[in-house]
Design a protein that fits this description.
EC number (chains A, B): 1.4.3.19
Strand content of chain A: 25-35%
Domain FAD dependent oxidoreductase (chains A, B): 3-322
Distance between the termini of chain A: 32 Å
Oligomer: homodimer
Shape of chain A: globular
Structural class of chain A: alpha/beta
Catalytic activity (chains A, B): glycine + O2 + H2O = glyoxylate + H2O2 + NH4(+)
Pathway (chains A, B): Cofactor biosynthesis; thiamine diphosphate biosynthesis
Keywords (chains A, B): Oxidoreductase, Thiamine biosynthesis
CATH class of the largest domain in chain A: Alpha Beta
Chain lengths: 341, 341
């Protein structure tokens, strides 16, 4: 019998399994073979620029996990997983957009997070491709990125090397960890719902690196968009947020994303549209994760919503602690799976 | 030895082979296995709404071929090939768009072609989904449509049933017909160039028939777009016209097509974006086709540019006549392959 069965082979499940195996436990991961939310994720590691009004506890969790990312990336091979630390630029197109971005930036700065306002010329000093229409923004130097489609294979490799068995059907185990994203609802009865996101992959001409290197967190005429540039020429543009369970890419979703992105970085109009897909974030009633004991012998680690990638290292470490010691780190207190019961 | 080898297994080549075989000739078609321009074509049969200033001879050819389409479709099975005869609505968004559309309509009407102006309410009586912003348009009752991706398999079936051999490598033949689209340039030295077109396939929710049945030939803030509704729920939206040989779908191409289409038929924003591809029309210096004798034992039928589908029946009939009798129909006089030499 295994010590631990992890249900779910996304980044969260694989990282938990890897951490448990590294502590000497016998671990298996149940993989249904279907790509999860990570497959449609841009991989922004943005605890600062994503910090939102009224979510101070979640922000503390994001910040703590982001701190662990450099070491986590180094263990897996930073280059192999597309980890980039150029930072994030917040970019606002209109005066109204800038007012919205500034309200949020003041809140983030008030929490002591590293984010500094930038004037239009200062933005364009950092990224020449930004539209001359841009009215202002900010710099979040600690908000980085990783490529989830490289991260997951690297985690599989690391977990397997540590002795984890990746299987289709689970056997009996001492502890079961449910890390199945939107699939966790059916397994646990917990309130995890799919929140549809449409996301695009563009390619710079000739597969050259794109002409910008920061992650761009944009506000464009009231539309929110991000652009994540990869060294291989890919630019990920995302994402819609829709309370829908279908996986259709819609004409309207694509147009709104591309218009907003091109309003900020006009050059992307010339880029190839390489992929358009929809995924489903695991949302919860407060859109914060569910991490902790669920029932006898069952732990859950799900509901990471838009923050699964940034929260992967911390979730893995603390769930491994929980499995090993039975002790729950106090930072997880607000994220108890049973809080909506 | 075959009587006829046709190089090219698109609609033109297959239809020529079919017609020749039906007259008792031994025919083979050389198919390189690559989809041609037809694969990215919407299949508009629009001799009237596509009639353009200074192209009266080409328009006469289009009209003559369009007359043959009902019989041609009936031979292949009108339903099987997605032939629809609901007609075409010309739709103009702004006052400037209407002025442009009206100038062309007056020219078309002056040639005696069936096209009548419609006021906005008259347009919306025919298609309720049209945007309330639409300023006017016209009705071209004889401009129909077919589905090229159904047409080509039907032509292969008909040709094969008539005894045509479809092969990868050609053997010797009495007459060779070059109907290889953009590939004809390399085979003949004739001035045929690729003109890139990006085209989208949308799907109505639930794969229901779209909420409109006419082909829409649109003018939207100076952008030209068409929407072709199929009974299976597909709506084809096209097309860019670019003097480029690459086959990339670009962010800008997709945005411009979808914005223009949604400005006229807002509902399509909710449609699934099922496919975005680029194809290459075989263009010539005057963008009219090259049909007729090329050299000893070689006939060409290429350069159909944007009109390959509508010109298929006439091209097939007249090239079969030419092969059989050596006589060229006078309507083809202006389209001699050597006219640019």
């Amino acid at each position: 019998m295994k010590d631990v069965t992890v249900v779910g082979a996304g980044p969260i499940g694989l990282a938990i399994a890897w951490r448990c195996a590294a502590r000497g436990m016998a671990v298996e991961v149940v993989d249904d073979g279907l790509p999860g939310a990570w497959h449609a994720s841009a991989g922004m590691l943005g605890p600062v620029a994503e910090a939102y009004f009224g979510e101070a506890q979640l922000t503390a969790l994001l910040v703590e996990s982001a701190k662990r990312w450099p070491g986590f990336a180094a263990e897996l091979g930073a280059e192999e997983i597309g980890y980039r630390a150029e930072g994030t630029l917040v970019v606002a197109l209109t005066g109204d957009d800038l007012a919205e971005a500034e309200r949020l930036r003041a809140y983030q700065a008030g929490l002591g997070l590293p984010i500094t306002p930038l004037r239009p010329t200062e933005l364009r000093d950092r990224e020449q491709l930004l539209s001359p229409r841009v009215r202002g923004g900010a710099h979040a130097p600690d908000d980085h990125q990783v490529n989830p489609r490289r991260l997951v294979p690297a985690l599989r490799k690391a977990a397997t090397a540590a002795g984890v068995a990746i299987v289709r059907e689970s056997g009996p185990a001492g502890v079961t960890v449910i890390a199945a994203g939107t699939g966790s609802a059916a397994l646990t009865g917990l309130p995890v719902r799919p929140v549809k996101g449409q996301i695009l992959r563009l390619r710079a001409p000739g597969h050259q690196p794109p002409g910008f290197s920061h992650v761009i967190r944009g506000y464009a005429d009231g539309r929110h968009v991000y652009l994540v540039p990869r060294l291989d020429g890919e630019v990920v543009v995302g994402a819609t947020v829709e309370e829908r369970a279908d996986a259709h890419v819609t004409a309207g979703g694509v147009v709104e994303l591309l218009r907003a992105a091109a309003d900020l970085v006009p050059e992307i109009y010339e880029y190839e549209l390489a992929e358009a897909i929809a995924g489903h974030r695991p949302g919860t009633p407060d859109n914060a994760p569910l991490i902790g004991p669920h029932s006898d012998g069952v732990i859950v680690a799900t509901g990471h919503y838009r923050h699964g990638i940034v929260l992967t290292p911390l979730t893995a470490d603390l769930v491994a602690d929980l499995v090993e010691t039975g002790q729950l780190d106090p930072i997880l207190g607000p994220f108890a799976p049973g809080r909506f019961a």
